[in-house]
Write a structure and sequence with these properties.
The complex is a heterodimer of chains A (124) and B (174).
Chain A: H1 2-17, H2 22-34, E1 45-50, E2 55-56, E3 59-62, E4 67-72, E5 81-82, E6 86-87, E7 96-100, E8 105-110, E9 118-123
Chain B: H1 2-19, H2 28-52, H3 56-83, H4 91-108, H5 112-141, H6 145-173
Helix pairs in contact in B: 1-4, 2-3, 2-4, 2-5, 3-6, 5-6
Classes of the chains: A alpha/beta (124), B mainly alpha (174).
Chain lengths: 124, 174
């Protein structure tokens, strides 16, 4: 009982500390639950830049648990969509979308607004 | 009273379109005006498709044209302001505008599948026409590197729109 209460208190503090970004709070709280302690530090964040209606790099290789951030530098929206695997929805101009790669595999994805805009995410 | 207007618009558009690749190279102020006009013409057609198209993909495409070309125009206007370039009207802009008005007038008279087909057919032809202008006139003529850079950066979006419109064109046939 005691440890449950203490843990709740810790969660509340974590949530308060991250209050400006509610989604950030969810991710931060979820990480220790999903991964063994100590393993999380090895995870890195990769960036895919969307510029000139193109994904750069066109092929990105990451490890399971790594995060990928798509940054849209075009003056109009794009998506990063792999049918059945992930879908950013509309990423507005100068905005980004972050995803944690949880499933291993090779994912060909595209922008649903500009379907000839294609790239690949490989999760090892 | 309506018919002569259509005929006149059509005649203007024909004369102007055929004049598009010719003439003296435009200066940067004119290029800025052409960029803004070319986007505005597609925004106007897109708005119409957004409200009138019956096929949901065509409707979504119209909405996207409004979003994408508005985004490009915001950036073009911001750049022109920064560079202190005052966009200057010119024959190419006038021909694009006349062609756009003619297209909107034709589209307004249509509905249902006929509207969808006419809109998509025009989007294919229009994006091809603008890409030709980008490659043959705008990029080679632009003096300011930032202005040239903006056109180079947005060019692939025009290619994507053209490919997307062609995909819809064949889907509508099938």
């Amino acid at each position: 009982m005691h440890s449950t209460i203490a843990r709740r208190g810790a969660l509340r503090i974590a949530a308060l500390a991250l209050a400006p970004g509610f989604a950030g709070a969810l991710v931060a709280v979820a990480v220790p639950a999903a991964d063994a302690v100590g393993k999380a530090a090895a995870h890195i964040t990769h960036t895919v830049v969307i510029d000139g209606t193109k994904f750069e790099p066109a092929t990105l290789e990451v490890r399971r648990g790594d995060a990928v951030v798509w940054v849209n530098r075009d003056p109009f929206p794009h998506t990063a969509t792999a049918a059945g695997a992930f879908d950013s929805g509309s990423i507005a101009a100068n905005r980004s979308w972050r995803m944690t790669a949880r499933t291993a595999g090779r994912f060909d994805y595209l922008c649903t607004f500009h379907p000839n805009m294609k790239a690949t995410l490989v999760v090892r | 009273m309506k018919l002569p207007v259509i005929v006149l618009a059509g005649a203007l558009s024909f004369a102007a379109t055929s004049a598009l690749p010719q003439g003296a190279a435009p200066n940067d102020a004119q290029i800025a005006h052409i960029v803004v006009t070319a986007n505005q013409v597609d925004i106007d057609a897109g708005k119409l498709a957004e409200s009138k198209a019956s096929n949901k993909d065509v409707k979504a495409f119209g909405k996207q044209m409004v979003t994408d070309h508005s985004g490009v125009n915001q950036q073009a206007v911001a750049l022109a302001t920064k560079l202190k370039v005052k966009p200057e009207d010119n024959p190419t802009s006038q021909s694009l505008k006349a062609g756009g008005a003619d297209n909107v007038q034709k589209l307004k008279a249509l509905s249902g599948a006929a509207f969808d087909k006419a809109y998509v057919d025009h989007e294919v032809a229009y994006h091809q026409q603008v890409l030709d202008a980008i490659d043959k006139v705008l990029i080679p003529s632009a003096k300011n590197e930032e202005l040239k850079g903006l056109i180079v950066k947005v060019r692939p979006a025009f290619v994507a729109h053209l490919e997307h419109a062609k995909m819809m064109q064949s889907a509508l046939k099938g």
